[in-house]
TrEMBL record:
A Pfam match: Caroten_synth
Keyword set includes Transmembrane: yes
Keywords for the protein's UniProt record, in alphabetical order: Membrane, Transmembrane, Transmembrane helix
Keyword flag Oxidoreductase: no
Membrane-crossing residue ranges in chain numbering: 20-39, 51-80, 100-118, 139-157, 177-200, 221-239, 245-262
Domain of life: Bacteria
Protein name: Carotenoid biosynthesis protein
Length: 279
């Protein structure tokens, strides 16, 4: 009996491991982005905080997707086609990488929001955020908005996955007004993004982890825009020019605001080294 149980667990582990490897081969661009996310997050938040952020975001995202594909909350009804079953790892009916992607999308948004709302100082050729408002409502709200903006670019392109290498992995039973995406989807992203950042802020504050951060100010925001550039490239590649122009306008506005903030910091004289305190 013990041997039989051990064989079952071994079979399950090997099957899951094979699916994970298959997932990496099927979605290499996601795993590259995931690796860069862990690097950026470790530099800014510290390894412990970024691991906690990842787990928290994944759990919230999975619950939201599991719920929406069954009762339509919070995104409205949508369904995974199951086209990639056997090719990538699924948890229940939800692709593992889909929920996991909320982690880096959430962090990129949070990191850019912190850059936008924080005073920036220059230490030689380095930019620092000495008084990062980790737990502020302004950072929470802006992170949530930036999180939704990413989906405004991503979701219409993902919905046309049959035109590029993503594949047609999901669909909405009723066509939405924004290039096929219903507005309820963006409301759902707002709720989920808010939940991820809010829960992380509260847990982070309670545990006092922000004292351990390394304060890298630019890598997370850079990845936010790099991811946008990738999505924009796919949008134009599949011939969705109107969608691409709208997305490009959104990208240009956000990028210009970020550049202006950074440029202002670079024109300021360098300051004395800062202590490790945060506010």
């Amino acid at each position: 009996m013990t041997l039989s149980t051990s064989n079952i667990w071994l079979y399950w582990f090997m099957e899951t491991f094979d699916l994970l490897i298959s997932t990496i081969l099927l979605r290499p661009y996601v795993f590259i982005l995931l690796g860069l996310y862990f690097l950026a997050g470790s530099l800014q938040l510290g390894l412990k905080r970024i691991v906690v952020f990842t787990i928290l975001a994944y759990v919230i995202a999975f619950i939201s997707e599991y719920s929406s594909t069954r009762i339509g909350i919070p995104y409205g009804y949508y369904y995974y086609t199951g086209e990639t079953h056997g090719k990538e790892l699924y948890i229940s009916n939800v692709p593992f990488m889909d929920s996991l992607s909320y982690s880096f999308l959430g962090y990129f948004s949070y990191s850019l929001a912190l850059l936008m709302v924080s005073p920036i100082t220059r230490e030689g050729c380095r930019l620092e955020l000495p008084n990062t408002p980790w737990y502020s409502k302004k950072a929470l709200f802006l992170s949530t908005v930036l999180f939704v903006i990413q989906d405004v670019l991503i979701d219409p392109v993902s919905l046309r996955g049959s035109k590029w290498f993503l594949g047609q992995i999901y669909y909405y039973p009723e066509k939405g007004i924004y290039f096929g995406v219903p507005l309820s989807n963006f409301l759902g992203w707002f709720m989920v993004g808010f939940a991820i950042i809010y829960c992380f802020q509260k847990l982070d504050q309670k545990m006092g982890w922000s004292m351990e951060c390394a304060r890298n100010a630019l890598m997370g925001p850079s990845l936010y825009f790099i991811n946008m550039i990738f999505i924009l490239s796919v949008t134009f590649y599949i011939g969705e020019y109107l969608m691409g122009m709208i997305s490009l306008s959104i990208f240009s506005l956000l990028f210009s605001i970020a550049i202006l903030k950074i440029r202002h910091a670079l024109t300021q004289p360098g300051r004395a080294p800062l202590d490790k305190g945060t506010s």
